[in-house]
Design goal:
The chain is α/β, with parallel strands linked by helices. The protein has a single domain (3-253), classed as Alpha-Beta Barrel (TIM Barrel), CATH 3.20.20. It contains 10 helices and 10 strands. The strands form 2 sheets. An 8-stranded parallel beta sheet has the order 3-4-5-6-7-8-9-10. Strands 1-2 form a two-stranded antiparallel ribbon. The longest helix has 15 residues, at 80-94. The two termini are 32 Å apart. 49% of the residues are buried.
Amino acid sequence: MHFVEANGAKIPAIGLGTWELRGRSCARLVEQALRLGYRHVDTAQMYDNEREVGEGLRASGVNRNDVFITTKVWTTHFAPNDLERSTKESLAKLRLKEVDLLLLHWPNPRIPLAETLGALARVRRLGLARHIGVSNFTVALIEEAVAACEEPLACDQVEYHPYLDQSKVMRACASHGMALVAYSPIAKGRIRNDRTLAGIGEKYRKSAAQVCLRWLVQQNVAAIPRTSKIERLSENIEIFDFELSDEKMRRIFALGSPKGRLTDFGFAPKWD
């Protein structure tokens, strides 16, 4: 198992993203992933599947302490008392005493960040989360968060794939000992037909998706690809038996631009 280490957290380098997975199929997929060797599952209050993620974890028979579970607090629960209450609700749904990582899902400018981070730090001190962090935070917000939080932040979870240049956020995370966790790491499936990635993969007998995930892991980034297909689960984790050369890494970096973002909402911050 390969890990990304950050401020005391050991985050398995490949995890299962569960956005848009629901009901029985979500529980089954989590169970299958854990049986295949995944040790990192990512969920969120907003995904409405925390209960099923917990069911999948229990059905897998894998020891709870061997699995890294992340959930995220939705922006409407950022007032201090609400954050703590909603975290306890998440734990009740997951049927866990604690999560390994609790994130703020998106920035919420309507509630002072210092108040929200104070509550997030308190949740960690109460033992409800082993580690805490943020998601969809810009460089400026990372700086503000680190300055305001009494407990170390483990990561910033952001969209990251070969089409989106995230070098500024990467540098900001690194300067504070934080990991970058990549969601939509295979650009919502778009990289599957990418000629550059497929061409690089031919030499290793790997798919474009595997080359893409390997590129992320070699940057010491943790990636949480989401799939609803059992056969893709094993493909996404079989990336630790080859290595990309510096020249191939550079070729993949060259695909990126600040305009490659796929996830953007009206409430999103002003991106770097």
